[in-house]
Design goal:
alpha/beta; seven-stranded parallel sheet; 41% helix; 324 residues; 10 helices; single chain; Rossmann fold; UDP-galactose 4-epimerase, domain 1; three-stranded mixed sheet; 2 domains
Length: 324
């Protein structure tokens, strides 16, 4: 049995569906503070919080849980700076409670949904796993702390883990049945699609004078199903190998803000208005992660590397979820 913490959220729900389609037995554990019950398509759903160690221990023992997928972190960079207590409490303290429950119940394998935010300002592009970790916000710091904790637990208690670092998850199930639904929404692609649907008037471009071909920031966008596939490969790796590891996930290239907007105009057929804004503090010109390590060691490759496909699947979902 696989225990998916945060399985009613955006990435977690896509991973749960893939697990179900491949005949895994799944427990979905989510407090629904940011997740959506209607996105859960397979498995047994239990509403609960990472702070409830005793409940998790009972679940692990009752359902004979073998492995954990951890998606239940808070993930808004701006919010993490405004309310660091919430992020250290949930992303670190509650995550330790999850590990405590695993130790008490004899569950020894975990795949962690980490972030390339642990790297901070990049010294080289694309970013590889040996790049220094110098997070520039609380969110990235919490991910770094928990990775360090897992390393220590691995050495002392024999915990086996895979940590997956990536930047911008995007896209949706191709049939439009599940996808991205955040409140508040901060990710570029759904915000652009909001403008295409008329849910907002325009998109603000934060900085147009960066040292990039069109002057706007370049970011790494990876399809949510490619992320889900990597999590399943990581599970298999833990089943067959005792070595704990950290891997980056990326699409191999980046796309600028203008490229995202232009592609969204093409996909939707809508005129999406832009407004120029000032640069945001701490926004690097380019953020792109290398996936050479996970490709070489686990055979992972992106099935949806093209921006048009990523936005196209997101648009199918967006129209169904938010269209009038």
């Amino acid at each position: 049995m696989i225990f998916v913490a945060g399985g009613a959220g955006y990435i977690g729900s896509h991973c749960v569906r893939m697990l179900g389609e491949r005949k895994y037995d799944v427990i979905i554990y989510d407090n629904l503070s940011r997740g959506h019950r209607d996105l859960v398509s397979h498995g047994i759903f239990i509403q609960g919080d990472l702070s409830d160690t005793d409940l998790m221990v009972r679940i692990f023992k009752e359902y004979d849980v073998d492995s954990v997928l951890h998606f239940a972190a808070n993930s808004l960079v701006g919010e993490s700076e405004e309310n660091p207590h919430r992020y250290y409490l949930n992303n670190v303290a509650n995550a330790i409670r999850l590990l405590d429950a695993m130790l008490r119940a004899g569950v020894g394998k975990i795949v962690f949904s980490s972030s390339a935010a642990v790297y901070g300002e990049p010294q080289s592009i694309p970013i590889e796993e040996d790049h220094p970790t110098r997070p520039e916000n609380v969110y990235g710091h919490t991910k770094q702390i928990f990775e360090d904790i897992m390393k220590k637990y691995s050495r002392v208690y024999g915990l086996r883990f895979v940590s997956l670092r990536y930047f911008n998850a995007a896209g949706a199930a191709p049939d439009g049945s599940i996808g991205e639904d955040h409140t508040p929404e901060t990710h570029l692609i759904p915000l652009v699609l909001d403008a295409a649907l008329g849910r907002s008037k325009e998109i603000t471009v934060f900085g147009t004078d960066y040292d990039t071909p069109d002057g706007t920031c370049i970011r790494d966008y990876i399809h949510v199903l490619d992320l889900a596939e990597a999590h399943l490969l990581a599970l298999k790796r833990l089943e067959n190998d005792s070595v704990s590891e950290i891997y980056n996930l990326g699409n191999g290239r980046g796309f600028s803000v203008r490229e995202v907007v232009d592609t969204a105009r093409k996909v939707t057929g809508k005129n999406i208005a832009l407004r120029q804004g000032k640069r945001r503090p701490g926004d690097p010109a380019r953020l792109v992660a290398s996936s050479k390590k996970i490709s070489g060691e686990m055979g992972w490759s992106a099935r949806y590397p093209e921006l048009e496909d990523i936005i196209g699947t997101a648009w199918n979902w967006h129209k169904k979820r938010f269209g009038k």
